[in-house]
Design a protein that fits this description.
The chain is built from eight helices and seven strands, in the order βββαβαβαββααααα. By secondary structure, it is of the alpha/beta class. The longest helix has 21 residues, at 170-190.
Length: 258
């Protein structure tokens, strides 16, 4: 069972509401005269997290990405696609502008939107995303500067509740980059040991935290505890990080075998 906070009431609502195995998402990019900026990338990122969480819970997902017309000039679309790929956001099933996306969004279970821009829709649960701050120039380009990891932006955004604002300053990004590098080295080391199953209590805790309004910061804290626990064998630590990275999307197994 997945629950997400309804922007209108603040209450947690179960999604999908019907007994089926498909979670339908409509991701609303904020209105912007020149198309979506770096701060707006957090909205599709939260949609990506919801889709990944649904899949971890045995559901299929279908994502529609919609935005006002000016956001979809060919140049802006290419820039957005490149930035989302750098952040590890899975491509949506449908991309477009109203009225093309109206029917698909009308059938959505969840509408992911920026704070202050609640979509005017009859059905589905609107859930808001806090401001994401400005990403340093060039970090999400096709070829970022050496030593800069775009997924540090993803980790930093994951480290705060999705409705809360985040500041993407250089110090915070550097710290996130160091955490990523450390975890990847650890995962590569653990991979040398025999595989062990993910501890049942860890899996249960992770699923419960994700199902409770996408409590990803609590899942990151759980990973830190697993990494430091002498009671969890290295092979089980590896499988835990590999499994939860299906939701986190941080490429934690990047250095395995290197």
């Amino acid at each position: 069972m997945l629950r997400i906070a309804d922007t209108r009431t603040g209450r947690l609502v179960e999604v999908p509401s019907a007994r089926r195995h498909l979670l339908r998402l409509c991701v609303h990019l904020p209105a912007a005269p020149d198309g979506p900026g770096a701060a707006d990338l957090r909205v599709p990122l939260v949609g990506d997290l919801l889709a990944r969480t649904a899949e971890l819970h045995g559901l299929q997902s279908h994502t529609v990405l919609t935005a006002p017309g000016p956001a979809w000039s060919p140049e802006r679309s290419r820039d957005l696609d490149r930035a989302l790929a750098a952040l590890g956001v899975h491509p949506p099933a449908v991309t477009g502008t109203p009225p093309t996306t109206d029917a698909a969004c009308a059938a959505a279970d969840v509408h992911v939107h920026a704070r202050g821009e609640v979509p005017e829709v009859a059905g589905g649960v609107p859930t808001e995303v806090g401001a994401g701050g400005a990403v340093p120039p060039g970090l999400l380009d096709a070829a970022p500067a050496p030593g800069r990891d775009p997924l540090a932006v993803r980790l930093l955004l994951l480290g705060r509740p999705h409705a809360a604002p985040v500041t993407l300053d250089e110090a915070a990004l550097d710290a996130a980059g160091r955490t990523l590098a450390h975890w990847r080295r650890q995962v590569a080391e653990w991979a040398r040991d025999p595989s062990r199953p993910v501890p049942a209590e860890v899996l249960r805790d992770a699923r419960e935290r994700l199902a409770d309004d996408l409590a990803v910061p609590a899942v990151l804290a759980l990973l830190t505890a697993v990494a430091e626990s002498a009671d969890v064998p290295p092979g089980a630590r590896f499988e835990t990080f590999a499994l939860l990275d299906r939701v986190l999307g941080l490429d934690l197994a990047r250095e395995v075998g290197s």
